[in-house]
Amino acid sequence: MKILYGVQGTGNGHLSRTRALLPALQRPGVEIDFVFSGRKQEDFFDMGDFADFTVLQGLTLIFERGRMQIGKTILGNNIFRLIKDIRQLDLSGYDLVISDFEPITAWAARLQEVPCIAVSHQCAFYQNVPRVKGHLASQLLMKFFAPSKTSVGFHYHHFDQPVLPPLIGPHAAGKLLKKKIVVYMGFEDLNDIIAFVEPFTDYEFDIFAKVENVQHLGHIKVNPLSHTVFHEQLMNCSGVISNAGFELSSEALSYGKKLLVKPLAGQYEQLCNVLALKKMGRATAMDCLDQGILKRWLQQDSEPALNYPPVAEPLADWILNPNRPSLATLARQVWGSR
Predict the structure, then answer these.
(1) Across all residues in the chain, what is the average pLDDT?
(2) What pTM was estimated for this model as a whole?
(3) 149 Cβ contact partners less than 8 Å away, ≥ 6 residues apart
(4) Domain with CATH 3.40.50.2000 in the chain
């Protein structure tokens, strides 16, 4: 079987999920090619897992200081280039397309009538999961951005719906450092983040950001983006400060890290994530970089880990099965009695 796997490059959550699923798909007789979009090629990092891959422009949302920049988003996306890439992507040699919220591969599969399976957190919103009211335009965008007749959604909890647990890669236990906090807020200004945590000198903050070299600023360390180093620090910390993206918050829940989140202003998915986390009692949220909220959060104890069941192997079995059962059957199998 030959598979084309499309991955949305905005943020790092889609890449992390793909890394977690890939080993389970790499079986005898299965060949996988990759298309990434939504980010410039030079902005991808630690891509050794994917061998040769193609980067296309795709579509992306542009955020600055935690808020979507509508004008820059419109000017920064070329809809004519998108349509051209969709039409020119030749799927004649592929048996299946997998799309993690990647529009070029999903739309090309639809137009060329190649089987496509969408796998993303966004797909969970096709089900009756917690969501904020309003945001009709965002809901429509989520529905038509990377459409597929077959879709698999991931969420923090099943909410009695046919969704799967978060797809998280294997991890080794770390040594818990109670005063160590990991910070990743890729859509915020780095100087704002540093100023936000600077007064709390009793704690060690490991910030990950788009910088060239490590910067030591007393109790604050600013690290270049690195999948490996980030997860090493994540395993040792007691808490995570981030925007409200799904994959990192899921890892924090899985590893038993307390979580402080700031959703991107007006970003529908992240607002829904905060609502779900609050329903579960598993996160503190803030609308801005509020040092009062940070002070109270730092004094909280760590959370117990949520022991999510394995997802990669049963999902890969399901994807590669030409006679795959219903999504509801797969979800019951994966969640079991949880």
Answers:
(1) 92
(2) 0.92
(3) 116
(4) 2-168+309-335, 180-298
